[in-house]
Specification:
This protein has 185 residues and is of the alpha+beta class. It has one domain: Peptide Deformylase. Helices cover 23% and strands 30% of the residues. It is built from 4 helices and 7 strands, in the order βαβββββαααβ. The strands form 2 sheets. Strands 2-3-4-5-6 form a 5-stranded antiparallel beta sheet, sandwiched between helices. It is globular and about 45 Å long.
Amino acid sequence: MILPVYLYGQPVLRKESIDITPDYPQLKELIENMFETMYNADGIGLAAPQVGLNIRLFIIDLEPLAEDEPMYSGFKKVFINPRIVEYKGEIVKLNEGCLSLPGLSEAVEREESIRIQYFDEEFKSHDEEYSDFFARCIQHEYDHIEGKLFIDKISAIRKQLIKSKLNNMLKGKVKCHYRIKAVQK
């Protein structure tokens, strides 16, 4: 089932998420629905707060990028109760977008590499290191479960330049080709 993507201004996007247990109700169905929602929106990552749930869960599938970059082939993962335990490497600035901020793309600085501990959908534990675009995607989704958005990492000047777009989102004046849940005024 395709779920609505919560847009900028929804309080759920600004709350720190909580851990879940293996007996979380209908977890497998939720994960399937999140993948379906993400694919429908042409995304490569989606965090639970973006579908209205303050739980520490996000998904990533880089397969849509594999045609141009074969190294992304087969990178489809579920991250449950993740914790980034180490950031390292140079700070790299690249453009990012977000399904919860449709139409916005900004240059964001992030660490080049991370080490993350998490559980997969079978609640098997993992301790892995990622770098480059893999690390960037994980950090972006991880920020969502920490109550942060990529616009929190841009300069004050850039924030001022996108203020009208953000205000339009708050007013519900946004068009998307995917199902959304805008702020109700």
